[in-house]
Amino acid sequence: MYLRTVNLQQLEYLLALDTHRQFVSAAGSCHVTQPALSMQLQKLEEELGVLLFDRKKKRLEPTAVGVKVIQQARHVLREVQLLREVVQVEKGELVGEVRLGIIPTLAPYLVPLFLVPLAERHPQLRVRVEELQSEELVSRLKAHQLDIGLLITPLDDGQLREVPLLEEPFLGYVSVSHPLYAHATLRPTDLSGAGLWLLQQGHCFRNQVLTICAPPDGVHPYSYESGSIETLKELVRRNNGYTLVPELSVLGEAGDNPMVKRFEAPEPVREVSLVVHHGFVRTQLLTNLRQLILEQVPERLHAGRATQKIKWQ
């Protein structure tokens, strides 16, 4: 079969439909009208001579051949993007779009430090940031749907390259009415689990906290698992109990707030890394982003100092 009119734009629309599984959202993500996207999909199907999506269902579903075409379209567009990136690297340019994913327990504390400065230093660079939990972030990196990830490592995944960035200590955040408040420093053996407030399931930070602490014993007559570290801190401030927080979340409080408790040495830390696919070629962008973040955080948090790293899985 000789293909005359298949173009890259049609393949981009095809992938948008696979991602959103509805025409309105897919068109919005591509910044085109729904009729324009529908027409291009129809032209692509006519050119290929196959139906790519089953439109009879409430939610669009790729047909069997559509799944194979979508998989190949991802490969084609990734190779085209790689071609552009190779040329940009050779020219020494930092231009175009960079898709960056970051986990929710890092985003509120790191994104404000680098997003605007990165755009100001490289005005031709379009930075798109999305908050994702670790499993989804890793999956998108491996599928080339993200360029760079900011998450907790090690991942031990042969498809991905990890560039250590920070080693961020865990700190206690303790209510004035809790017995741990009288402690100058904490030890993991002090943390029985009684009164512990936790992030909800799915957050890697929750898994790390439970590695340090004994499992909660249900001492509360109520239960609330938050998706936000800031919510956990407010629960501790207004109620009894304690939680563990990453140091970036209390940079303005540590040393001044007696509710914040350090651990005795060696402090448990989480390793924060920039993660890319092994095929990522924009190494200068990676280097610049890493340096920019390091400039914004205390040197004591820079990677290469810790001895007790807590795994996230």
TrEMBL record:
Keywords: DNA-binding, Transcription, Transcription regulation. Pfam families: HTH_1, LysR_substrate. PROSITE patterns: HTH_LYSR. GO terms for cellular component: cytosol. Residues 6-63 form the HTH lysR-type domain. SUPFAM superfamilies: Periplasmic binding protein-like II (SSF53850), Winged helix' DNA-binding domain (SSF46785). GO terms for molecular function: DNA binding; DNA-binding transcription factor activity. Belongs to the LysR transcriptional regulatory family. This is Transcriptional regulator, LysR family. It comes from Hymenobacter roseosalivarius DSM 11622.
